[in-house]
Amino acid sequence: MVNGASEFDEGSAVTARVGEPGVYDSALGEGWRIGGGVNGGVLLAIAGRALATELGTADGDRPAHPDPLAISAYYLTPGVPGPATVRTSVVRRGRAVSTGQASLLQDDGAGGEVERVRFLATYGDLESVDGDITTSAAPPDLPPPDRCISAAQAPPDFLKHASLLQRLDMRLDPATTGWAVGEPSGNGVIRGWLRMADGREPDPLLLLLAVDALPPVAFELGLPGWTPTLELTAHVRARPAPGWLRVSLTNRTLAGGFLEEDAEVWDSEGRLVALSRQLARASAPAPDRR
Amino acid sequence: MVNGASEFDEGSAVTARVGEPGVYDSALGEGWRIGGGVNGGVLLAIAGRALATELGTADGDRPAHPDPLAISAYYLTPGVPGPATVRTSVVRRGRAVSTGQASLLQDDGAGGEVERVRFLATYGDLESVDGDITTSAAPPDLPPPDRCISAAQAPPDFLKHASLLQRLDMRLDPATTGWAVGEPSGNGVIRGWLRMADGREPDPLLLLLAVDALPPVAFELGLPGWTPTLELTAHVRARPAPGWLRVSLTNRTLAGGFLEEDAEVWDSEGRLVALSRQLARASAPAPDRR
């Protein structure tokens, strides 16, 4: 990233619509596709940015709450490249935190709108968090990035519908990439290093992408199909330091065709900066590519 | 429980309001108080029951989805004993799952309503889950219930605002109850056995209570104060077998005054039947007892 906006900031940009308070115009980019749709983390970041604009401004005696402490996304239909609308509403403005709701919608091709994702979120100010952390959590032990496996080495079949990977510099721990050569470990763990290909440094909004950017942990369970997310909730716990992120995905239980994927994101100073859990459906048929 | 409805079914009952589709009348019971308000798990169960009514009925070619697969609660203001209204709306009816939204409101004492909790949830049918589980998760190793510590043994100061505990038969692992005698381990783990005092057997709705029924894990971190939940998301993964539940709470990171509490609930057959994570605020001042 030399000049202008980063790919992430462009890909998650929102513009307040004149005359319609709380409504934002956005676009889902071709460059953020993965599997059968647009990456769910980008959708989370788009809504997260719209809500940051709504809640990140002080209102009377209520201070600004610019950072997503907790954000839940209920995925309804797969996002497709093209224009999108984010409709936000403030649920409650508080002194310590504020809560908002958002819907991400797209044209349904028949003159109406179809909702892609419904969100709820509570925002606060992570400025106060610096240096005030007690934890028993230790970052994952990974080989150095140059001894990990770059996404660029993924099989062409996988890369075909994965323009997202061109935005990312992702280096996966070779101990967790058996799936890529048809030998999934069955362990339910995928972990690796992550940064943006254009050098854009992490911040709370980027962490919303990071929690859903790695290949689905279902791959390492031997489920190579489409695993659509039903629900994902992310907690941002601290503003990340510049540099590489470490991301670990784990799964423990697959039941009735549903599995959870837990993500943990660590910054370059070894701090646990984000946690997420999603419920996904295993090996569903790929959606229509509308 | 000999005759009639169980305490849980009474405490989480909802009645469809005539002439107002999607609106339910309920009541927050005096018998479900804990700390500064009504237990958040009961509020979750009340909304969960209203949504189960809305989504649990087949609609044209869309089958019934009676079970909460994922439900997120954003707590806004503390619930107090008294009448409550649940307003639901269907976000999307699908073939495999359906999504709904709900608000739990109470009278604000000035002729208006104050919202206590906003919910999003995706429902499905857990009937299909039986026997179809692969997992690497093992239930917590607990001493037998008669060698654990009953909530009835808790200090009187704690029991004073804890009518909830009379509804529960809770037996905590003595290794995780140092907080009760002023010697918290600092480990960030509380675990124990749980069943309803009146013998009501667990089902998916009861699991929504179970994930938020134990003492807050913050106690074992040496934070004895009020730890209000900002957000809690629960995943119900299977219908529980009758008998004791085992519940384990863990925390790993306290940052900026916020901590996560992860709950896992296991049924008497050793299956992981529910997972939840909440974000809570540590040692906030107790709210007014309105």
UniProtKB/TrEMBL annotation, chains A, B:
Residues 30-123 form the Acyl-CoA thioesterase-like N-terminal HotDog domain. Residues 145-280 form the Acyl-CoA thioesterase-like C-terminal domain. This is Thioesterase family protein. It comes from the Bacteria.
